[in-house]
Prior knowledge:
The chain has 10 helices and 18 strands.
Amino acid sequence: MKTNWDVIVVGGGPAGLFAAWEIAKAGKSVLLCDRKREMGVPVRCAEACGEEDINKYLPVEERWVGAKTHSFILVLPNGKEIKLSNEKYSGFILNRDLFEYDMAAKAGELGAKIMMKANVIDLIHNDDGSAKGVKVDENGTINEYYASVVIAADGVESRIARKMGIDTTLKAKDIEPCVQVTASNVNLKENALYIYIGTNYAPGGYAWAFPKANNCANIGLGINGKYASTEKHSKEYLDEFLATYYPHVSVQKYITGGVPVSLTLKTLCKENMLIAGDAGRMVNPLNGGGICHAIDSGVLAGKAAIEACEDTLKIEKIFKKYEKEIYKTIGKRHESQYRIKNLVYQMNDEDYNNIGDEILKISEDKRSFFRIFSQVVKHKPELLIDVVKAFTGI
Ligand SMILES: Cc1cc2nc3c(=O)[nH]c(=O)nc-3n(C[C@H](O)[C@H](O)[C@H](O)COP(=O)(O)OP(=O)(O)OC[C@H]3O[C@@H](n4cnc5c(N)ncnc54)[C@H](O)[C@@H]3O)c2cc1C
């Protein structure tokens, strides 16, 4: 197989796939390595994202749509439900396995080389510290591939970003161990995204139930790493949650995964290497959503790599522009969301119930996330500036 490429992308999640697709569209040669056996599987995700997050790059295909939701329901620790049902709160659940499989095929059609069961174990460096290429374990055989640019899109556990010499360490409070089942016979009352808050089943995090086709749903929870203990594992929290809210479901699939709920990395490039997606900690720290930022950063990293291949002398300037763009569009907003997360998740069930009672006094058609957070600010005035920043993007 060809060993020299314009760009090598490590990881075939949304970030890596969109980077490879973008690069192949521009006619550059790109090799994408993923250590999994099959693209898109296993799905370690609740799959909620905005249809527009994909549509702005290419039309959403019917088979990618797991479900469309028309409202958002926040369930308080005392079981009371706060419903937001105006158009703004309609949402969309992906079939991520099919979406990623198809994106890989689309990139492949444009000329990208996708390699599965290709575990990137190391970077190969030039004398000046830049990357010459990668070492890949393919079924026990170690092969070397070379490129002008390497993109680390290897997710939350990213080894490649660390091998670039970038500190990606996460504090316990900045990682949420999650567990999730995909279950049938769920009978969600409405076609809604359900979020449950309560310290007894999701301390420092939340639980969710997101509908999928055929009366199925992704039901899971994430607890803050600070509360993770050997005495009670996330799965026990989930079992108790299911027994309380969904005792009749039948489980088809069980997954675990970690979500980085930290600040986005400020350093996202070194020499001829770039970081995109979860590897760069681009998840919204307040709600744990990372698909849209993985896609956006993948596209931007792809564009930066194309530019760098065309003008190698300006690589530093081009990659610094990438860093700035990620900060402007993702990292800056995450700073206020991170501060809100740290305060909100310290509240106890009584705080949540009291705030909830205030929100329930607002008529359903007038409720919004902004009004919910306005009530939170009444209880925690120190959050005012961050809530304004989070909602205005300033
Ligand atoms: C339980 C759970 C629920 C979630 N729910 C949502 C949700 O509802 N909505 C949302 O927006 N986000 C959600 N997220 C977050 C979302 O899944 C991530 O933000 C998103 O997948 C990040 O995409 P990525 O491409 O950066 O990384 P990933 O999707 O993690 O992809 C990384 C890829 O790199 C590959 N890889 C890793 N190391 C190597 C290596 N050394 N060599 C080769 N390949 C390698 C992996 O196999 C993987 O395919 C959830 C996460 C979890 C764990």
